[in-house]
Amino acid sequence: MESLLKTEEGQVSFTAHMEDEYSVENIEFYNATGEFQEHSTATFMGRVAPEELMAQGVAILELYVKSSAEKEVNISAGKQAAIVAAFEAVAASASERCVAPTVFDAARDEVRKLMEQDNFGRFSKNAEKMGAMVDKFFADADSNNDGKVSKEEYHRWAEVHPEAVEFINTLHESTRRITNKCLRAHTVEVEIRAGNAAGGTGETAEVKEGTMEGNGGGIAEEGGAGGDVLP
Question: To the nearest whole number, what is the mean pLDDT of the chain?
Fold first, then answer.
């Protein structure tokens, strides 16, 4: 799930899925606390003022953590109380300017596990939603809009979007099979390498329906074994 959320397409698709499941507050909290972590590092390096980080933390506290918050997330009472107490301690202190950078970490991890075990499981098994996301990946990679992705186009796209390649290559085996079914709607040019292709011609061929899925669960070169998504 984390590799999915590193991609723009994954963020959009999974957030829409969370809205469908009336759980969008969880992904919003996860993203907001991730930004808080990043800004905590920037504060340590002197690029963000502690007061600014504190204001960001208070906004998360008020919107997602406190009891009866507008978008209260489902975290344990103990974690909720610990976060509230940390902010109250800073507010009452004459010297402390900000809460600890780790103040949301335990709650964020709890929400991440909930999404992975629950929402993401259903999302990854939904062929329609996975297919729509794959369409976005390949539309982006198809730079000349000819309806197929050449090896050169793929490598240019992969250099700019390594997080998308990481997500596709780390999919669970069952999820890969669903993704490959969606990918059959696309024609992808691949290079047939000598020794790996039927006949070992080393020429360029087109992967058509029925040849996408190999033994490794990824996209296979025609006549070759499956593995990573593309060579």
Answer: 78
> Which of helix, strand or coil describes residue 112?
helix
pTM: 0.67
Is the residue at 6 inside a domain?
yes
Q: What is the CATH number of the domain that holds 69?
A: 1.10.167.10
| Band of residue 94 on the pLDDT scale cut at 50, 70, 90 | confident
pLDDT of 31 reads 95
Alpha helix ranges (H) inside the chain: 2-5, 8-20, 24-44, 50-60, 77-92, 105-114, 120-124, 127-141, 151-160, 162-169, 173-183
Per-residue pLDDT of 121-175, as tens digits, reads: 898 888 888 888 888 888 888 888 888 888 888 888 888 888 877 877 766 554 5
In single-letter form, the type of residue at position 216 comes to G
Q: Are residues 85 and 197 in the same domain?
A: no
Residues 55 and 149 in one domain: no
In a domain, 22, yes or no: yes
Which of 70, 82, 62, 55 has its CA nearest to residue 24?
70
Inter-axis angle of helices 173-183 and 127-141, nearest 10: 60
- Last residue of one domain, picked from the residues 99, 124, 149: 124
Q: How far apart are the C-alpha atoms of 24 and 185, rounded to whole Å?
A: 30
User: Does residue 85 lie within any of the structural domains?
Assistant: yes
Domain boundary among 104, 124, 144: 124
